[in-house]
Amino acid sequence: QSVVTQPPSASGNPGQRVTISCSGSNSNIGSNIVNWYQQLPGAAPKLLISADDQRPSGVPDRFSGSRSGTSASLAISGLQSEDEGEYYCATWDDSLNGPVFGGGTKVTVL
Amino acid sequence: QVHLVQSGPEVRKPGASVKVSCKTSGYTFTTYGYSWVRQAPGQEPEWMGYISAYSGNKKYAQNFQGRVTMTTDASTSTAYMELRSLTSDDTAVYYCARDAQYCSTASCYFDFDSWGQGTLVTVSS
Prior knowledge:
The complex is a heterodimer.
Chain A: E1 9-12, E2 18-23, E3 34-39, E4 46-49, E5 63-68, E6 71-76, E7 85-93, E8 98-101, E9 105-109
Parallel strand pairs in A: 1-9
Antiparallel strand pairs in A: 2-6, 3-4, 3-7, 5-6, 7-8, 7-9
Chain B: E1 3-6, E2 10-12, E3 18-25, E4 33-39, E5 46-52, E6 58-60, E7 68-73, E8 78-83, E9 92-99, E10 102-103, E11 108-109, E12 114-115, E13 119-123
Parallel strand pairs in B: 2-13
Antiparallel strand pairs in B: 1-3, 3-8, 4-5, 4-9, 5-6, 7-8, 9-12, 9-13, 10-11
C-alpha cells in the first residue's frame, strides 16, 4: 500500500472538469514537489505535470496541478475521450529516501 | 527527438538474473540521470533506483538493495539494470526513465520526463 493516497476512480462527461486528489504526509508531499503522470492503456507513463504545476512542452493547458500542505491535485478541464486512462501522482518521500507513486486514479469519460 | 528504446521481453526461472538495456538518442546522454521503475500487473509504478550518467552516482530503493545493479555506457548512450535472485513477485514491466534528479538541503526533485517503452520480465518455473 502506497504512502500516498489517490481515489481509485473519477469520471465526467465530455467537456466537464475532473479533479484528482493526492494525499500524503509531512515526509513527502508536505516537503517535496509532486509530479503527475498519465498512463494510457498498454503504454508507458507520460509526464503530465512536474514540480507541482509545470506543464512540459506539448501538454495541453487543460491539465493543471497544484499543491498545498500535504495534498496535491490534478485538474482536467474540458474532458475529452482521449483523456481516459490511469493517472498517478508521485513525490519524494524523505523516510524512504526516494520517489513514491500514488495508487493511481482511473479516469472514465462517460 | 528524445528516444529511449529498451531491450525485448525476458522469461527467467526463479533464482536467475535478468539484465535490461535502455538505449537513448536525441540528446546528450551524460547530461542526465536514469531511473528504473517497475510496474507489476494492475499495480502502481515502483521506483527501483537511479544512476547519474555524468558522475556514476547511484541510489537504490531499500526494497532492492543488494539485489539490483545499475550501470551506464556513455560510448553507446545506454543504461542497464540487472536484477538478481528473481522470484515470481518480480514479474512486471520494467521501465527506464530519464531523470534530472537532485536533492538540496531542503527537498528533493525528480521528473521522469521521458520513458522507455517497457520490458516485460516474466519469472516462472
